[in-house]
Amino acid sequence: MLGTLDLSFFSWELLAPFVIKGFIFSIWLTVVATIGGIILGTLLALMRLSGKTALEIPAAAYVNTMRSIPLVMVLLWFFLLIPFAIGRPIGAEMSAVITFIAFEAAYFSEIVRAGIQSIPRGQVNAGYALGMTYQQNMKLIILPQAFRNMLPVFLTQTIILFQDTSLVYAIGAYDMLKGFETAGKNLGRPIEAYLLAAVLYFLMCLALSKLVRAIQNKVQIIR
Question: In this predicted structure, what is the pLDDT of residue 1?
């Protein structure tokens, strides 16, 4: 089989009409899900650290449930159940956005919670000693330091998120992998198209991983 591969058959002019649309959606989904996941995840983390049972239990149940279910299954649930609940379809792309934000929030929540708990207690007490409220202490002292320390982990999770965007094929969304699959079928070279997709995913994730290491080294120097 390998002897019949002909990667020279492909050119950017041939691939571009199929791949660019999916590439843009994959990047857009990654960015939106990361921002939405961090915002919702931070809220969940604060609920779990609030010391109030009425907030802790629902947040913990949400996080533990989401982290226990495969992403592709959550995708199918949202894709099938949301239209049923609201009485109209919302499309594969919107279903993917909602699913990824909801799913990734559980993982970002644990990252944020660990980051907050890593801040020395002395700094927290110093804020209270200055007369700050809990909200002021969290906003001005704890969260800025926690987010700086968590930045490499955030980026690592974002890389994983980008890789997971390929799962939206299960609900028919047109992502980067779907673009390569469509190109392969239309050009009669499906195996070569999948190989090129794998190479592109690898190169993008490798470049992002190097960026994470550079940021991690810089954060350690700042400490």
Answer: 44
